[in-house]
Amino acid sequence: MTVKLHQRWLEPLQREFDSPYMADLRAFLVAEEAAGKRIFPAEVDRFRALDLTPPEAVRVVILGQDPYHGEGQAHGLCFSVQPGVKVPPSLKNIYKELKADLNIDPPGHGFLEHWAKQGVLLLNNCLTVELGLAASHKGRGWERFTDAVIAHVNASDRPTVFMLWGSHAQKKAGQIAPHHLVLKSVHPSPLSAHGGFFGSRPFSQANAFLRKHGRGEVNWALPAV
């Protein structure tokens, strides 16, 4: 497993990379690919969220479930797709809420690196998936790794916003200290968005909290690509 992530993450996560569970996870991924299975995202992009957003820069954490399992979609940031790839339904609903909340028009693409570079940690609970099989790498060790990432952000005294969308993400809420802001709602998937995601106003709440604590705000408007 090629590890490409920001240098500032290496020290807090070294214990995880050296752990037996991570060795087991590496072996599992090597075996799956040797068997001809397609794994997403590409190896070089699996830690992309941690490469673009160093720990001291994290202002908002958005937690996804696992990477998109379609051809050419996943590139290491939750909910994001590469330029030129059709915007997935969940991200369309995120854009709808962004429009309702901050009157920001959808950008016409699904590439969210602009958010990541401003301190929005776009982290999936699992960092790999098999082609066409959602949640196919659940329980293989990634959850333990991403728990460690969240624990490190949580341990910081810098007030941070955690957007926990859907039941899988909300399971992390118990780990989060009270000086952070936790915003919980249903998942933006078309199957659930009308049950509380629409109208939740996460973007304006996040920016109000960040401003209050002297951490600026996120420019949620995405530039053209």
Blueprint of the fold:
Layout lengths: L6 H11 L2 H15 L4 E2 L7 H5 L7 E5 L24 H14 L10 H4 L3 E5 L4 E2 L11 H14 L5 E5 L1 H4 L10 E5 L16 H11 L13
Parallel strand pairs: 2-3, 2-5, 5-6
Antiparallel strand pairs: 1-4
Helix pairs in contact: 1-6
Task: Please describe what this structure looks like.
It is a single chain. α1 (7-17) crosses α6. With 225 residues, the protein is α/β, with parallel strands linked by helices. The chain has a single domain (7-213), classed as Uracil-DNA glycosylase-like domain (Uracil-DNA Glycosylase, subunit E, 3-Layer(aba) Sandwich), CATH 3.40.470. The protein is globular. The protein is 35% helix and 11% strand. The protein contains eight helices and six strands; from the N terminus they run ααβαβααββαβαβα. The strands form two sheets. Strands 3-2-5-6 form a four-stranded parallel sheet. The protein has a two-stranded antiparallel ribbon with strand order 1-4.
